[in-house]
Amino acid sequence: MQKLVQGFLRKKLGVRGPQRAPTKERITIRLSREVVEQFRESGEGWQTRMDAALREWLKNHSPV
User: Fold this and answer.
1) CB within 8 Å of 32: residues ≥ 6 apart
2) Global pTM?
3) What tens digit of pLDDT does each residue of 15-51 get?
């Protein structure tokens, strides 16, 4: 019963279990204030949307 309650609370609180394999890398990057503000103002998930925008950009541009 206790495991059932713990599982329910994890799901309800949005607590994730351990990742099977890391898919992203934590870095420090400096961006213009305007860019960060625009993404933050778009709401929750702004970092994911920024990642998607950079991925899209890389489809048509060379990173160097």
Assistant:
1) none
2) 0.63
3) 677 778 778 888 999 999 999 999 999 999 999 999 9
Q: What separation in angstroms does the CA of 35 have from each of 2, 11, 32, 39?
A: 46, 33, 5, 6
Tokens of 3: 């495991």
* Number of structural domains in the chain: 1
Q: Pull the structure tokens for residue 47.
A: 């970092």
Task: Examine residue 17 and state whether it is found in any structural domain, yes or no.
Answer: no
Q: How far apart are CA 26 and CA 46, in angstroms?
A: 15
The length of the chain is 64
In a domain? residue 8: no
Q: Which domain holds residue 48?
A: 32-64
